[in-house]
Design a protein that fits this description.
Blueprint lengths: L5 H4 L12 E3 L4 H6 L22 H12 L3 H10 L6 H13 L3 H10 L3 H13 L2 E3 L1 H13 L3 H13 L6 H13 L3 H14 L3 H15 L1
Helix pairs in contact: 3-5, 5-6, 6-7, 6-8, 7-8, 8-9, 8-10, 10-11
C-alpha cells in the first residue's frame, strides 16, 4: 500500500478521544501494569478521525473479522486474506469504523501493516497530546508499525518511551523487536533486549528459547 497523500492527512482531527489502548490521567503506574486489552465499546462510540462513506460490505466484513480475531496468528490471517484485497477507499472506511468503535490498537496495527506510517504517527501523537496515556499494547503496535517500514531507530525510541512511561514491555513487545532486529543484523540491540527480558518477564530463559526456536523455523 502506497503512502497516503498529504490531503488525506489533513482530515485527521480529533474532537472526541477514543479510550481503547489509552488511559486518561492515570492515578498510578500500577494501574497501567495491571491493565488488559479488551474488545468492545467503552463510553459509547466516538467521532472517527477519518472521513468515511457508508460502509461497503467488504469494509463491514473486515471490521467484523478483525474484532473476532483473538490471537496474532488469526489477525495475521485476516490481514493476508481479507484486508489485502480491500480497495484504498474501503481501507480508509475500515480505519474510520475501527476508530469510531474505540479499537485504536487495531487501527494502529492496520496502519502499520499497510505501511501508512505517517498516519500511524499522527494518530498516536495527537492522542497523547490530548492527555491520553498509551498502554503497553498501544506502544507495541506503534513499534511494530515502525519496524514494518524499517525505521529501527524510531522503534527503539518508542520502546524506551514505553519503559519511561511506567508501562512494562511484554512478551509480544519483545518478540516483535527481537525477531525484527535479528533479521536486520542488529545483534547489539538484540543483546540489550534479552537483558531487559530478565527484568520484565517471568521465566525469561524459557521465553527466549521459544522465540529462538520459532524464529529458526521461519528462516
Amino acid at each position: 500500500m502506497k503512502s497516503m497523500k498529504p490531503a488525506l492527512m489533513g482530515t485527521l482531527k480529533i474532537s472526541h478521544i477514543p479510550q481503547m489502548g489509552f488511559l486518561q490521567n492515570p492515578k498510578s503506574h500500577n494501574l497501567e501494569r495491571r491493565s488488559t486489552v479488551t474488545c468492545g465499546l467503552r463510553g459509547g462510540t466516538r467521532k472517527p478521525l477519518w472521513k468515511s462513506r457508508v460502509l461497503s460490505t467488504e469494509a463491514i466484513q473486515a471490521v467484523h473479522s478483525l474484532k473476532l480475531a483473538n490471537s496474532n496468528s488469526k489477525l495475521n490471517h485476516v490481514f493476508s486474506t481479507r484486508l489485502s484485497r480491500l480497495l484504498k477507499a474501503d481501507l480508509l472506511d475500515t480505519l474510520a469504523e475501527l476508530q469510531r468503535q474505540n479499537e485504536i490498537q487495531l487501527a494502529l496495527k492496520l496502519l502499520g501493516k499497510n505501511r501508512m506510517i505517517e498516519m500511524a504517527q499522527q494518530l498516536f501523537t495527537e492522542l497523547e497530546n490530548d492527555g491520553l496515556k498509551p498502554n503497553t499494547r498501544a506502544f507495541t503496535e506503534m513499534i511494530g508499525a515502525y519496524l514494518q517500514v524499517g525505521m529501527i531507530e524510531k522503534a527503539m525510541e518508542t520502546y524506551e518511551r514505553l519503559k519511561a512511561s511506567g508501562c512494562s514491555p511484554d512478551k509480544l513487545t519483545f518478540t516483535i523487536l527481537i525477531r525484527n532486529l535479528e533479521n536486520a543484523g542488529k545483534e547489539e540491540l538484540v543483546a540489550v533486549l534479552k537483558k531487559d527480558c530478565i527484568e520484565y518477564l517471568e521465566y525469561p530463559e524459557r521465553f527466549l528459547e521459544d522465540v529462538q526456536q520459532k524464529h529458526s523455523k521461519r528462516r
